[in-house]
Amino acid sequence: MPKLSVVRYGRKAEALKVTPDSTMNQSIDPLTQPASLDLKKLNQKFENSNPKDTLAWCVINIPTGLVQVSAFNVDDMLITDLLYRELKPTYPVPVMFLDTLHHFPETLELVAKAKHIYNLNLKIYKIPDVGTRESFATKYGDSLWDKDIDQFSQLTKIEPLQRGWLNWGRSPGSQADDEIRQIADPIWPFLS
């Protein structure tokens, strides 16, 4: 499933350039009023579609309001590759990465490589006032994830993600956002 989020709605995109070898199984005609998305209908429409169709629809209908939240795992890299190598959106989709300070070095290398290869508008969010794993351990204790997973998640994931949403013009955690998330499942699990 594509992990893209609608942050705000922009103007309608020009035509999406789809190459002849691209296969589009769904109608992706632009919406006339993207602010009035019917998420239930979209879920039905894209329930059995491939991710490329879903992403193409997003690029056309929400061209300046998308953000990809990426952990730079295989699924997220496939989405990034579809977006930038195949769909080539007119407006680059910003990518949000949560640096928990506990990633493998290979993950951080992949982040740097992907930023270079795809020329990503990459925004990295992490816990404030703590720059290294060692300073995190000094401030919060060793193995916090093992002692208090909820606090670890709050510090390294939830708060940085909320700060990222605020930077993108969203107010996270509102009742409306919770309702959107519930309605959005399963195709739009990270719509906010």
* Helix-and-strand structural type: alpha/beta
**Tally of DSSP β-strands:** 4
The shape is globular
Order of helices and strands: EHHEHEHEHHHH
Oligomeric status: single chain
Physical arrangement of strands within the biggest beta sheet: 1-2-3-4
Gyration radius (Cα, Å) is: 18 Å
Percentage of residues in helical conformation: 40-55%
Number of helices: 8
**What about the largest sheet?**
4 strands, mixed
Low-confidence stretches: 1-34, 179-192
What is the CA-CA span between the terminal residues?
15 Å
The portion of residues forming beta strands comes to 5-15%
Mean pLDDT: 76
Main attributes?
globular; disordered C terminus; alpha/beta; 8 helices; disordered N terminus; 192 residues
Which helices and strands occur, and which strands form pairs?
Layout: E1 4-6, H1 39-46, H2 51-61, E2 66-69, H3 74-87, E3 95-99, H4 105-118, E4 122-126, H5 133-140, H6 144-147, H7 149-167, H8 175-184
Parallel strand pairs: 2-3, 3-4
Antiparallel strand pairs: 1-2
